[in-house]
Amino acid sequence: MLEHHQLNSGESTLDIRIALPTGRLSTTHALVFVHGLPRAQGLGRQAAALLPQLAEHVANESGWTVATGTLSGVGASTGTFSPTRWLADLGVLIDFLAAEDRGISLAGFGIGGSLALRYAANHDDIRGVATFAAPAHVERWAGPPQAFHDLVKLAGVVSDTNDLLDPATLSNELLALDPLGAIAMIPPRRLLIGHGTDDLEVPSSEARELVAAADGRAELRMIQSAGHQLRADPRMVATLLGWLDRHR
After folding, report:
1. Which residue among 101, 144, 195, 230 is least crowded, i.e. fewest CB within 10 A of its CB?
2. Concatenated DSSP letters for 138-194?
3. CA-to-CA distance for 199 and 248, rounded, in angstroms?
4. What end-to-end distance do the CA atoms of the chain give, in Å?
5. How many separate domains does the chain show?
6. pLDDT digits (tens, 9 = 90+) for 162-191
7. Model's pTM, two decimal places?
8. Residue 188: which domain range?
9. Which of 54, 61, 48 shows the shortest CA–CA distance to 89?
């Protein structure tokens, strides 16, 4: 069953979907999917595409409650992207889930994985984090400040250009995610790092750097011949379900 909610986050209204497992007792475990930021023109609005269906599938197979939403500037959510805004949006969604006393873990895709690591580093109540195709070096992924600013506008995650931060501030907020520093703060909580061996956007070597930064205390799953888009890869889904089954 897929519930639909709208939550207020600052000046944004977030569009949220929550999948409850069918035919199972209500679970005390919840997983939040965190979408990334596509680099192609106009695709930012579709950054969370397929995640509601994936949430339903994972909920039914795992018995977990699975939530996903579109953060500011994405999908039906209002507002404009910034890393700090997205962290605040994620907090609003997590607080909504936590109101029913669920233990919460995060699964992030692409830059959403970097966002999930930073949020968990700052919040000890997050029980675990799984990342898929997440960059260890956001500065490499984004490029120079002006290039990243242009990327955000190209992706279309800007409701009002007056709300978009200037290039230097936007870049500094992104750098503050510091995935390598963040992941070092998460153990002994559970960590899963998944990555495609043929990822052309984020080199697979960065997955190993993340594991090393966690002092080796993370599960590493390299998905052979997979590229950057892992959401629809059945091997990624099987990897995630196995991690959830061990993470009770």
Report:
1. 101
2. HHHHH-SHHHHHHHHHHHT--S-GGGSPPHHHHHHHHHTT-HHHHHTTSTTSEEEEE
3. 30
4. 22
5. 1
6. 899 999 999 999 999 999 999 999 999 999
7. 0.95
8. 2-246
9. 48
